[in-house]
Write a structure and sequence with these properties.
Layout (H helix, E strand, L loop, with lengths): L5 H5 L9 H26 L1 H19 L4 H9 L3 H28 L6 H15 L3 H15 L7 H6 L1 H15 L4 H4 L5 H22 L9 H4 L1 H28 L6 H14 L8 H10 L4 H31 L5 H5 L18
Length: 355
């Protein structure tokens, strides 16, 4: 029996996607993937420069959008009510306290014994870093706590992973409210439901994982396996999120934008998503224009600027308060060294003990 030609035996039928068009598409896909990998690697190696360039690009974009209306922007921002700004700072401080307490519960469940004062002080350092970039704030928070209380917190990897339960709760809450983005972003109606189901599955998988083998880095997820601790942690995270939504709503109204709570929630989600990008302090204004620009670009940009200002002020107030509380009633030098006041026996002078 004669052998079949190679092209007939190896390829008995027409191949889907073959031909010059498929080859071109494959080359384009490979080129895009290579470029994306190169850009990501460069941004990771030059984070400061990437953040600076991202901030500059965002400001230029906002400048194009607001061309010829800078005076109106300044009037909207400067004309904001002082008591609304002060209230926004207070609300932001309360939100930071709530999230710090949620983090403390996660760290304690992972085996940490650190007290509130050193943990709150380390958290405050991270919140100041968040003004510039979320990754910077996270790194500062973990490094500060490891430096101040190395014997009272888990190892570095485990300590860093204690943020995961908080992020899971935050993302789950975001999926419950992301229906507010269906209109502004043109998402399908089923997107929030699908996102919530995915996060619910992720939570169940993590809880099963930590209960099955609570060792190593999995100890960082221990709070998810404890029903009571998980409920308290989730409650504090929810309080922090509600505070941020309230602050968004206050700043929108302070800028003359009659927004709803749903608009403020959509803005919070947008700020969280854009905060992962190297856009720096301009993230508030960029998110406001992206989500609520149809309600007045000048007003929503002013609201974004006020969000950045009150967020920075609140972080500084929280940091100052945390530092002051950590120094208050600090152990005296005698108790630290273990030496109390010396009792001089009768008939012996104090000068006799002086070398």
């Amino acid at each position: 029996m004669p052998d079949k030609p190679a092209n007939e035996s190896d390829h008995p039928g027409p191949r889907t996607g073959s031909g010059p068009g498929a080859a071109v598409r494959s080359q384009v896909t490979d080129a895009v993937r290579t470029a994306a990998t190169a850009v990501t690697g460069w941004a990771g190696a030059h984070r400061k420069l990437a953040t600076a360039l991202g901030t500059l690009a965002t400001i230029i974009g906002l400048g194009v959008v607001l061309a010829g209306r800078w005076g109106a922007l300044a009037d909207a921002a400067v004309g904001a009510s002082g008591w609304l700004l002060a209230l926004a700072v207070v609300v932001h401080v309360a939100s930071l306290v709530s999230r710090s307490e949620a983090w403390r519960l996660s760290v304690r469940a992972a085996g940490g014994t650190v007290g509130r004062r050193p943990l709150y002080r380390a958290a405050s350092v991270g919140y100041i870093g968040n003004i510039i970039n979320g990754e910077l704030g996270f790194a500062l928070r973990i490094a500060s706590l490891r430096r101040s209380s190395p014997d009272e917190v888990p190892k570095f990897t485990t300590l860093a992973a204690t943020e995961v339960p908080l992020i899971v709760v935050e993302v789950t809450l975001a999926t419950l409210t992301c229906f507010t983005l269906v209109g502004p972003l043109g998402l399908p109606w089923w997107a929030p439901i699908a996102a919530f189901v995915v996060m619910l599955a992720v939570t169940l998988v993590l809880r099963h994982l930590v209960r099955r083998k609570p060792a190593g880095w999995r100890r960082a997820l221990a709070v998810l396996g404890d029903g009571a601790a998980c409920s308290r942690m989730a409650a504090f995270v929810a309080l922090a999120v509600c505070g941020q939504v309230l602050r968004n709503w206050l700043m929108l109204h302070a800028s003359g934008i009659h927004a709803s709570i749903f608009d403020a929630t959509a803005l919070l989600i947008a700020v969280a998503v854009l905060g992962a990008l190297p856009v720096g302090p301009s993230v508030g204004a960029a998110a406001a224009v992206l989500i609520l620009g149809q309600q007045g670009e000048v007003g929503v940009t002013a609201a974004g600027v006020l969000l950045t200002a009150t967020g920075g002020a609140g972080a500084l107030v929280y940091a100052a308060s945390a530092y002051a509380l950590s120094r208050w009633r600090q152990p005296s030098r005698e108790s630290v060294t273990g030496r109390g006041p010396q009792v001089i026996p009768a008939g012996r002078s104090a000068e006799a003990d002086v070398p």
